[in-house]
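Work Package 3 (structural annotation) set out to generate three-dimensional models for the target panel prioritized at the project kickoff. During this period the team completed the workflow that converts sequence records into discrete structure tokens, so that structures can be stored uniformly alongside our sequence database. As a representative example, we reproduce one entry of 305 residues exactly as it appears in the project archive.
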Amino acid sequence: MRAQFVLSEIGVGLRRNLTMTFAVIVSVALSLALFGGSLLMSDQVSTMKGYWYDKVNVSIFLCNKHDAESDVNCAKGAVTEDQKKQILADLHNMPIVEKVSYESQDDAYKHYKAQFGNSPLASSLTPDQMQESYRIKLKDPQKYQVVASAFNGRDGVQSVQDQKGILDNLFQLLNLMNRGALGVMAMMLIVALLLIVNTVRVSAFSRRRETGIMRLVGASGFYIQAPFIAEAAVAGLIGGGLACVALLVGRYFTIDHGMDLAHKLQLINFVGWDAVLAKLPLILATSVLMPSLAAFFALRKYLKV
């Protein structure tokens, strides 16, 4: 097969169906940009989990004299020095505990003022209303329940809280948003496939006389199909290229410059350029294979070659 003939047929087909070709390119670009964005979002969530789960603490809040008046868990009164020593000793004896730090009422008050100093409630609080606490770093953050079962309900303990539970809610929200993006991507992908099939059908119908003559002179099925499949592949490749550009530009302007999230949200370890570049070959390969297969099956049915 002559490459020049195939290329000329591709150009003719793309020009004849310029509007539909443009629609295919835009649909493929949008769907694959969402696909790449969803993959990067999954990487981002995994990166954040690894970063934050390594820093989460389990907090054991101790009863103060105000809790003894209002909290059923502190009905036996504020925590005593002996109770605090026993809790600390038991924590050090637990093999899953990596590190234990103590936060006094004064320290808790300073931290609260630093974080919520503008809150109306902050002006009415006093250090003696704050709770002493032990902050525990676990060797395995998944073992929170071991600490909770050991200290919940103990005399002098108001509550045991796991920061991982707060992070889990955040990551569940991010995963939900990611699934929503995948759902939109799937719909756009279906639209793109339908447009590709219709474009191939229109192109095949407009050149039905040419393909009929080619069949009569003994042209093979692949020889007849190749220009149509190549047209879809070229349109898809252009769309995939635009999707790659969208991901690169999006990463550049949202994280590095423009919105500059990398500097504004330094607590978040954003995915790097290596993760973005690693997705580009997959997007380009999908942009070629998806339209080619759609065109191949559409031609089998409507050209019957």
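The chain has a mean pLDDT of 79.
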